[in-house]
Batch of 3 targets.
Target 1
Amino acid sequence: MKRGFTGASFFSWGSEVMVSAFLATRGPSFFLAGSHLGRPFIMVFFLAGSKRTYQEAGMAEERGRGGEGLPRDVAILCVGRELLKGNTLDRNANWMARRIEPLGLRCWRFSTVDDVEEEIGREVLWILERGTRFLVTTGGLGPTFDDMTLRSIARALDLPLEIHPQAEAWVREAYAKLYEEGLTSTPEMTPGRRKMALLPRGARPLSNPLGAAPGMALEWEGTTILSFPGVPEEMQAMFPLHAEPLFRERGGKNLVRREVEIVWPGKDESLIEEHVRAVTARFPGLYVKSRVRGTGRGVTIRLTLWCEGEDEGEVEKTLAEG
């Protein structure tokens, strides 16, 4: 079926309702746009069995970019039901994002999923299909039944799990030390501990200076997958050792980034839109975010202006004039 408009059509239901519309076809999809009693509408129909991707349907930009959004450099996936239930506050994603940007990369996605293999695998594939350069996961590397991040990644990518000799040695060493300190009743490699040494084929283990669970690094079709434990102290000890060197090596241009915050004189956020559009149209490299605090007469509206570029003088000028 050819793409494009097929022309104007007129449909009549009953004696009083008249709809005029354009019928467009796009592969296995039909787009019907027009008016119903003077009101515009659009309807989209998908044929059953379609396997077209968002990219094929023209609903996403080229690999590595999110439309007009952030470059698809780094995605962060946090795993754990305790996060979704609100029992544990996720500190990992925020901590990492604040350290990623100074290294010349941008974090374009945070996501949190349950300790369910299908959920983890589905999210991993969704992120990989969008061409992220790095995928960083936290959580699910321990010895218990609900620690299944690496298994989920392996199955999603159709890779076998294998005992990695270096990972196994690190796990043995960690529990031998815990046994000597009287913190565990046995130094033996139990099934749960042995599970911590299972990595997807082709992956390499990442040393954990504070805990027993090794991390993982895996190269997959242009994406580097890094997996860290969910315990913040362990993740924070491992991130500078394993993630930051990679980010520096493969980071973006040495960009100058600046931001300023101003207080908007009014109380109505809806009146800011036209001003923001005018400023950002004049300065394409400028990003403006409004934040409202308080209610009623106590409302305060703050605008944060971000700008980046290779020339520090141009960045400063844009912020000053914007």
Note: DSSP finds nine helices and 15 strands in the chain.
Target 2
Amino acid sequence: ENTTDSDGHVENRASRDELLAYFKKVLLSMTDSGRVRFFPKCIASSDGTTLTHSLNSKKVWHVHAERKVVFSFGKSPVPARPLKAARAFQVSDNVHIVTPNDLPDVGGHDNYVVLGGGQAGVDTVLWLLHNGVDAGCIGWVVREHEWLVNRGHLEPDTLPATMTHVYEAMTSAKCRTVQGVMLNIEKFQGLLCRLDPTQLPTAYFGSSVTTAELNELRQVRIRTGGKLTAVLEDSVQMIDGNVATNSGTLHIDCTGYEPKLALTTPVFASARRIELQSLGELHMSVLHPTASAGMVGHLEAVAPEDWEHHN
């Protein structure tokens, strides 16, 4: 919509319903053109030549495509509502555990424990705080401390300066280690920030926050202890420590939501296949798939036959 954000910069983000409405609008604009067909709830064969409806109809469509656009480079192994068997840790039978998507439909718990970091963990903690849960009733269990990106530096008017500084930090002769690079970026007006100012982060997932959100997150108890091994009725167990809980605790599983990047694959894998992924400095700084996809689309449109040169 042609409107101005009166709240300023990135203080507010779209809700789930707003996102769904936007994507539906975009999809309809493509299908109405007559050039695009949408096959909902379908499973593609390994070679992409057939589509099978995943519900009771089991209808099959045979597909021929001149060029396939695939996003298999970023892998997130846990679905929105994972089966217990899909989790990488033990869960006792009487434990109350849900995923972030389930939160609007549950309530009435004494305490909440968010399992896992990354953007899903960040957003889950913020959702709880914004929906009236006291910070003292929220525990946050993460494998390790992570660097966060201050979204205020990712606006169109500030992004060029941000990218310039990131590039200079990555190529500076003074920064001989990854940690040195991250510390150098942190000095740039707080472009990178920490949940706990006293702890040096050892991970980066591209999670982003505003300054106000960072201050909110710092109210919550954070516990690190390495890999999560089990969620029992009275504790959350990690390799390097346990966190005591009780039967009234609701656990929110955010452990499978950080992007799992596969080995590097050429974007233009062949004359008939495009592998979408985050590119170059975009990948290193903000993990911005939208801008990367736009760049790939431009290259494919201006010279569709020159796929080897694009790589």
Note: Residues 77-81, 281-286 have pLDDT under 50 and may be disordered.
Target 3
Amino acid sequence: MNFDGYVAKFDVEHLAGLDAWRQGLLVPTWVGAYVDLTDAESDDSQASEDPHPFEAVQDLDDAQVPFVAVTSQTCDVVGAGPGARHPFVQVSPVRDLSTWDPAKLQLVRSGEINDWILLTEPPVDGAIWAIDLRASWPFSKTALATTAPVVGFASADDEREIGARLARKYERPAFPDAITTTAARRLDAAVERGMKAMWATDVVQLRLDVMKGTVLEPEEVRLLVVSEGLLDPASRRQFRDAWSDCKRPIQDAGIKWTRAGFRDIERMSAREYRDTFLLRIPKLSSGSLNAR
């Protein structure tokens, strides 16, 4: 099937085959292509100032890309309902990270490098494989329907991390490094201490409230600690101290720092939740992605 041959309706056989698929499952055989500059040494298009010096490069090394993972949301993967309008799904390559430096690999595990998602149950025992979100291409659903899916994650929570990671990747505001790196790491370390000391166990999220300025150019920010029930005074004091530890780097970035606020998740308004931004705190992540 090509872009001129969209299927208006999947037949019964294809519908049944697509029912086995969902976001996060792996495709053991694949076809992919990407566009790159032509090789000037083997093609004279650049030398002749061709206005379109591009070519499609196909057949990536199977040893480097043993699988691709379905990244489209599940309702677009199936053949009925909204999925009937989608002749393709999006897939991203699965890559071997076993040769990576341990420190960099830990950043992938903790979610600080957002472009990679580790498989928590790779189809090869002992493999350290991850989905590379830097690349994506369409895969025909008629081809998908005739292929048996391969599981790469240990739980449904782990599979759902793909959607959450994609949302963060494409929706996340461009906050300064003082917030997304320095402050987030210090808060993550504080949460780790608090989990051990039992003063952070009721916290579900840390969110950033841009009180002045815009998302792209924040002028004043504060931390919102969202918990199941309101935290006791001692726990609130711990989070105030942790947020105070972030004051200097935030101010050095030209942003006004304001003291932390606290919210009970059951009483937090939908507007405030929508207008604030989730901070990536790996120690608050669900699933087993950080357990490896």
Note: The longest strand covers residues 203-213.
